[in-house]
Design goal:
mainly alpha, 9 helices, 0% strand, transmembrane transporter activity, MetI-like, membrane, MetI-like_sf
Length: 216
């Protein structure tokens, strides 16, 4: 093992470049998947005729597919129908599709966990269904959704490493390039990559805990 060589300034800078790509791809995917998953989850909760059934079929299909297969599809299969995406957009699309399906179920379950009497009471007080959902049901459900939503975000951040199969220049990919230069770099680089993932994900967990305390 050669820790000094593995942790040279150039190698550390190269790993940080990969970490930046990981964070960028994860952040964009998280924002998009939260918006899309939220819309899908609310539609399914509201049981909009026909649309909710179609979305349920799509969600269950995506949830039961390997993320790796979705990544392969967005990067290798879409060009066959004249939709060519560069590596980073392809990774974002794949992660967003997969995570949207997961989050939609989290959000739907969170909404369903609120007692039905809350909706009935809100409606009887003169609020429309939409008003009751936005002002009464959703705020309560969000408190319960925080832990599973953050858990999904952490999983998504880790799942960005799967995009190494399409050569996404993220943290794991850059780590592979460095330890490919020398077998002595393997363990030091893997330790450092693991530490970087841990610091980011643990920070997210702490933020979620604080947010949950403030909401309670």
């Amino acid at each position: 093992m050669d820790f000094a060589g593995a942790y040279s300034p150039d190698n550390l800078a190269f790993l940080l470049e990969g970490l930046w790509v990981t964070l960028k791809v994860a952040f964009i995917s998280i924002v998009l998947s939260f918006i899309i998953g939220g819309i899908v989850g609310i539609i399914r909760y509201a049981k909009v005729p026909v649309l909710s059934q179609i979305l349920a079929l799509v969600v269950e299909t995506v949830r039961n597919l390997p993320l790796l297969l979705i990544i392969f599809f967005t990067y290798f299969a879409l060009p066959e129908i004249s939709i060519k995406l560069e590596i980073i957009p392809a990774a974002i699309v794949a992660l967003t599709i997969f995570e949207s399906a997961m989050l939609s179920e989290v959000i739907r379950s969170g909404l369903k966990s609120i007692d039905k009497g809350q909706m009935e009471a809100a409606r009887s007080s003169g609020l429309s269904y939409t008003q009751a959902l936005i002002h009464i049901i959703l705020p309560q459900a969000l408190r319960r959704m925080v832990p599973p939503i953050v858990s999904q975000f952490i999983s998504l951040l880790k799942d960005t490493s799967l995009a190494v199969v399409i050569s996404l220049p993220e943290l794991t990919h850059h780590g592979q390039i460095i330890y490919g230069q020398s077998q002595k770099y393997l363990i030091p680089i893997l330790i450092l990559v693991a530490l970087m993932y841990f610091v980011v994900n643990y920070s997210l967990s702490l933020m979620a805990q604080r947010l949950e305390v403030r909401r309670s």
